Every structure is written in C-alpha cells, then in structure tokens.
Amino acid sequence: MNARTHLARSHDQANVVATVQKVVAEVVAPLALATDRDATFPAEQVAALAGAGVGGLLMPESLGGQETSTATYAESLAAISAACGSTSTVYMTQMHCAHPIHVQGRKDQQEAWIPGLCSAAAIGAIALTEPEAGSDVASMRTTARRDGDGYVVNGEKTFISNGDVADVVVLFASVDTARGKSGITAFVVDTAAAEGLRAGTPMKKLGQKGASTVTLGFEDCRIPASARLGDEGEGFPLLVRSVVKSRISAAAQGVGFAQGALDATVKHCAEHDLLSTRDRSAQDLRFELARLRAEVAAARAMLAEVCDLVDASVEEPMAEVSMAKLHCTSLGVKVSSACVELLGEHGDLRQLGVERRLRDAKITEIYDGTNQVQSMIVARDIYLSAGSS
C-alpha cells in the first residue's frame, strides 16, 4: 500500500467511523440500558445505522454498501459494541448473511437480498451450528435432498442470531452426509416462502439480551433449486470464508466491550473525583486504568493489522484471524471484569453499564468458534510452521 492509498483509506475510515459514532451517541447508547433490561430487539438502532448509510460497510456500492476496508468495518463495529452489545450482534449478523450471498450468489440473488440487508429493510441470519455439530461442521446432519426442481430440507440449527425475525437465512446443509465436508452446500432461504421452517422461542441469555437467539427447525421444508448458492458441494469453502468475517466481528466486539467498560469506569471515577486526589489509592487507580487503556490500544492495533492482512491475502489467514479472535474476545472479558472490580460496590449497578459489558463480552469467547478451537487452529499452524522450517 503506497502512502497516497493509505491516506485515502484513512480518510475514508475516519469519515465512516465518525458517522457510526454519531449514530451511536444519538440513538444506540441512549437505548442500550432499556434494550438489555427488556430484552428488546434493537430494530430502531440498526435502522438508524442503515439510514445513515453505514449498514453494509463491506458490500459494494452498487448493492447498497460502502465497500470499505475490513479494518473500517471492525472499527465501526467496535464503536457500536462499546455502547450496546445487542445492537452490535444484530448489526454484524446482517453482514454475516450478506457476505456469502455476495461471494457465491448469482447476480439475481445478490440484487434480491443484499440491498435490503444493507438498508435494514430485510433482516438476515446465517444457519450453521447444530445441536450435535458445533465446531465440527463437517459432521452436520441437516440434509437437503434433491427432489425435482427443488430440495427438501430436514434438520435443526441452533444458536441462530436473528433467526426468529429473519427475512432471509443463509443455510448450510449436506446433500450427502456420507461425503463429509464435500457434501456441504449453501442455500439462501426466503423465510416467507419456506413452509416447514419454524423458529423456536428466543433463548434466555446472560448477555446481549436484545439480540434474539433461537433454534431453527426444518421439517420437510421445500426450497427451490434456484435458492442454492453455487453448486452442490461448494458450501464448505464458502463456510470457511464466512467464519473469517464472523471471527473478525467477534474480535471487534471484544475490543468494543473493553473500551465501553473502560470509558464508563473512567467517567464514573471522574464524576466522583476519584482520580484527582493525591493519596495512594487514587494513584493505584490511575495506574490500573492506564494499564487497561494500553491493553485495549494494543488489541485494537492487532485487530487492525489482521484486518489489513485479510484484505491483502489471496488465501484466508486463518491462524492470524484466530489469534485476533482469541486475544480480543478474552481481553473484552478481562478488561470488563477488572473495571467491575475497580468500581467496588458500584461495579454491579445496572445504570453504569459496566456489568452489562462484562455479560455481553463473555459470549464472544464462545460463539464463532470457541476460544479453545481458536487455540487449536493457532497451535496447528505453529506445528506446521515448525515442521517446514
């Protein structure tokens, strides 16, 4: 990247992130406490972001997006996450749904769904995880059997964000379970036309309570052959490309939750004059806040570097993305927890929002591939690198 390109991209990122921050300050942050308390789906917040033109950052302008860099998307998502975890999860799920349609969809599929996902006129979901096939996606048991001019889908997906309110679902199913991952095929499902598709009741969760998470059941659900994304058996490579984006999203959330918890803690301490006194306890507090600030800044820099690597690489940099997901999500929990402790008896007060960031952060260590899975991926890369040296 030459200096002129870097400056142009930096200017683009600053403008986009500034727009996101404005919507966050005016709409997202004021509704965050109530969204969590009442488990309210954040439709207004997501619509406000889309209305400001920042609803589909990674999508082409011709399809209603901004066509920004991955780093710009990550920094924007972190800003949303700092204010409201529920909004950030719904917002990123819109992108997770649009991405595979853009990568492998026909022109008519792209034009049918991506502009609506960018504008929030349509809500999207991506159905991958199953009750008995979480991290081991090759063992998925949801089947799509060819029948005339369509497919008949049977099976169950679980922990599906937006699943109960989705207009469109990107579904991964197997056309032949005996083929393992080579049987995995992707489909774009119009939920209004999918008889035999049922959504369960939203799950009761520790955090991100406004972002609905459900089980999706498919019982002799017939979908047209035209709903297939690419050819049969092309779903697994698409899945791999999709999880790169979702793991970047989780890492960005981790940075955002850490930043939000830190900002709320500093604000509370300043308002109660806990930072200006000259006694030893105030100095210890200032030093601890300084350490946390440095850790958040380091994680943000790591995430930005990995995002640039994603955009520059021909092959997906799986190990680097896993490191970012592992580190940044763990940091979100670590910093939020430290802030709760620093606030003492005020740490668990709902109105401060620090305990909410801790609750929201915890799930990021679990979804989009648990952090134990990320450790396995990085360890395997270390082993392979050592063997080739």
Describe the protein in words.
By secondary structure, the protein is an alpha+beta fold. It has three domains: 3-123, Orthogonal Bundle (Butyryl-Coa Dehydrogenase, subunit A, domain 1); 125-233, Butyryl-CoA Dehydrogenase, subunit A, domain 2; 236-388, Butyryl-CoA Dehydrogenase, subunit A, domain 3 (Up-down Bundle), CATH 1.20.140. It is built from ten helices and eight strands. The chain has helices at 3-38, 43-51, 70-83, 85-104, 107-119, 235-271, 280-312, 318-342, 354-362, 371-388; strands at 124-127, 143-147, 150-161, 168-174, 184-190, 197-199, 213-224, 228-229. The strands form two sheets. It has a four-stranded mixed β-sheet with strand order 1-4-5-8. The protein has a four-stranded antiparallel β-sheet with strand order 2-3-7-6, covered by helices on one side. Helix 7 runs antiparallel to helix 8 (318-342). The radius of gyration is 21 Å and the shape is globular.
SSE topology:
Layout: H1 3-38, H2 43-51, H3 70-83, H4 85-104, H5 107-119, E1 124-127, E2 143-147, E3 150-161, E4 168-174, E5 184-190, E6 197-199, E7 213-224, E8 228-229, H6 235-271, H7 280-312, H8 318-342, H9 354-362, H10 371-388
Parallel strand pairs: 1-4
Antiparallel strand pairs: 2-3, 3-7, 4-5, 5-8, 6-7
CATH topology of the largest domain, by name, is: Butyryl-CoA Dehydrogenase, subunit A, domain 3
Strand order of the largest sheet: 1-4-5-8
Proportion of residues in β-strands: 5-15%
Q: Radius of gyration over alpha carbons?
A: 21 Å
Please give the share of residues in helix.
55-70%
Please provide the ordered H/E string of secondary-structure elements: HHHHHEEEEEEEEHHHHH
- Tally of individual helices: 10
Instruction: Please tally the β strands and state the result.
Output: 8
CATH homologous superfamily name of the largest domain?
Butyryl-CoA Dehydrogenase, subunit A, domain 3
Specify the structural class.
alpha+beta
Distance separating the two termini: 29 Å
> Mean of the pLDDT scores?
94
CATH C-level class of the largest domain is Mainly Alpha
Biggest sheet features: 4 strands, mixed
CATH-defined architecture of the largest domain? Up-down Bundle
Shape: globular
